[in-house]
Amino acid sequence: DKRMLQLVLESAPAATNSVQEEDRSGELMGIVNWFAVHPTSMNSTNQLISGDNKGYASYLMEKEYNEDRMQIGNEKQHKFVAAFASTNLGDVSPNTAGPKCLDSGLPCDPITSTCHGHNEMCVAFGPGRDMFESTEIIGKKQYDKAVELLNNVLSNKDQTRMNAGQIKSRHSFIDMRGLNVTLENGDMVQTCHAAIGYGFAAGTMDGHGAFDFKQGSNSSNPFWNMVGGFLSKPSKHQTKCHAPKPILLNTGYIHLPYDWDPNTVPISLFQINNLFILNVPGEFTTMAGRRLRKAMHQILSAAGYHDAKVTIAGISNTYTHYITTHEEYQGQRYEAASTLYGPFTLDAYLQEFSRLMHDLLEDRPSLTDPPPKDAAKKQLALLPDVEVDMIGVGYKFGSVVKNTKDSYPTSGTEIAKVIFRSSNPRSNPKIQDTFLTVEQLDAKGKWHVWLTDADWDTKYIWQGGMTYLGTSFAEIHWKISKDTPQGIYRICHSATRRTLLGHTGEAMYKAPEMLGGSYGLNLLISVGRTLFGQFKSVRNLFHHKHIHHLRDFHGCSSSFLVYEE
Questions:
Q1: Residue-level pLDDT at 474
Q2: Who's near 359: CB < 8 A, 6+ residues apart?
Q3: Which percentage of the chain shows pLDDT scores above 70?
Q4: Which among 454, 459, 455, 487 has a CA at the least distance from the CA of 474?
Q5: Looking at residue 508, what is its pLDDT?
Q6: I want to staple 82 with a disulfide (CB 3.0 to 4.6 A). Which of 61, 190, 402, 459 is the partner?
Q7: H or E stretch including 30?
């Protein structure tokens, strides 16, 4: 799909002349748009948290339309919100240079996405020289289109203004196991219990799989059948139901420690005047999304909504992998192998969304199946908790290990780097806050925040774990852009450490080497909680509210000069 649909949000006009400051009557509040492209410009080698191309587009737009974006933690300063949402992006890659073989540079096999029969060498590239530039290019294209659409609205060239008007919704839970579906020609079919096919394990050109699985596989392998059968062996009925998909994982019948895939899924429908938003629990392909929108337009047109706008809000409320058309399902590429409920999955959604739409238009309540069981308390965490942060004797949290240089030119290629002694970021994920600031010195000798970890030109890289015996280091990068004003700058790091010592100030002790540093101590405490948690006195010790103390710390690099070349 090549269209972007955008909803512009403004504050409502004031009812009286006495308007509170927070009412901001008629003020531009933000945008929500829907455009079909995967946020997978950052490939699988990336280990940094990133909003990818859609996050970069949002960053550019919020940076442009917020007056003071550097007021950390002050949400009132961030009035404008730009949401670049997912829609029917199931088979749309941002890597427009296409998949190529890493060894030869030639295109991958178009059917199986392999090179010499192996999927590991087939990787999609572009349009940039690396994944960071590709993210910028694809994100900037979405940003440019969003700004164009916004300017058309603000100049009254192209808009459909929607005031309070009709705001309605409908919601249903649907049990997808053996759901009866009536096709357009009148035939009756059923959906299947969830299952994943062989093509799923092959991955895609945006993220390859392993073990020589291939996309487009319509036959199974005895060895992998045996491996999957240890978890759940599909019945003859299940195998026939999913055909031509060869079942790798029979997820609809695997319930330990909880359901591996949803059996009951939520769907919902929002109406805001003539805008209708279809909230789907998975990734619809281009053609699957077009058929869903077409079916809804036909219903709306018959009801008199001839100028209705229909969009799909993808990956909403739960995740059921992909939804392909019946024709796409026959090819059993990655998306088809990941279509959980069999070849008539899309037809089921067409039927159920049509039911919801009729319910909404005719003002009747929607029938629903029982909701799924709440498994929140059954979730497994294989990563040990952070019990304590430690560093070597004589050091302070926030102290500099490797400092910046004295000066940097604004060439657009220079990167200022500094490394701090730090803590595990899971001790405090800094929600609505930042792990770093780039600060500029003004003429009065005061430091002002120039950039944070939300900015594209900065990177916060945590180094820790068993390799470092549980100690942590924060490596901070600032790529100095060409438009950076000349001046004096510094890079600062803020974080939180977890300690067992209470009010002791900065930690000046060393983790016992025989325990593998603080990593070993964390693991020992976690094992102790598990093994001895059955004893009330020990359980109370491990969970006592005063056993852990959180201490914030802060450190800065030396100041340095940024100058024009």
A1: 96
A2: 170, 365, 366
A3: 80
A4: 459
A5: 36
A6: 61
A7: strand 28-34
In the block, tokens 């739960």 appear at 318
Question: CA 330 to CA 339: how far, in whole Å?
Answer: 11
Q: Is 93 a catalytic residue?
A: yes
Which whole number is the average pLDDT over 27-44? Answer: 94
How much is the pLDDT for 22? 46
Residue 21 DSSP symbol: G
* 452 residue type, one letter: T
CB atoms within 10 A of CB 388: 22
DSSP secondary structure, 190-236, as one string: E--S--EEHHHHTEETTEE-STT--TT--S--HHHHHHHHHH-PPPH
Number of C-beta neighbours around residue 448 at 10 A: 10
Q: Please state, as a whole number, how many other Cβ atoms lie within 10 Å of the Cβ of residue 527.
A: 11
What residue type is assigned to position 48 of the chain?
Answer: L
Report the DSSP pairing between strands 81-85 and 28-34: parallel
**SS3 sequence, 479-547?**
ECCCCCCCEEEEEEEEEEEEECCCCCCCCCCCCCHHHCHHHHHHHHHHHHHHHHCCCHHHHHHHHCCCC
Is the pLDDT at 204 greater than 90? The verdict is no
In sequence order, which residues have a C-beta less than 8 Å from that of residue 527 and are 6 or more positions away? none
The amino acid at 165: G
Structure tokens at 341: 């409920």
User: How big is the chain, counted in residues?
Assistant: 565
Q: Which residues contact 275 (CB under 8 A, 6 or more apart)?
A: 7, 162, 308, 309, 311
Question: What backbone torsions phi and psi does residue 399 show, to the nearest 5 degrees?
Answer: -75, 155
**How far is Cα 281 from Cα 321, in angstroms, rounded to an integer?**
8
CB 310 within 8 A of CB 299: no
SS3 category, 338:
coil
The closest of 346, 340, 364 to 293, measured between CA atoms, is 346
Mean of pLDDT values over 181-191: 97
Residue 522 sits at the vertex; the CA angle it makes with 516 and 526, to the nearest 5 degrees, is 130
Residue 219 pLDDT: 57
pLDDT for residue 446: 97
Q: Of residues 93, 366, 494, 518, which has the active-site annotation?
A: 93
Dmax over Cα atoms in the chain, in whole Å? Answer: 79
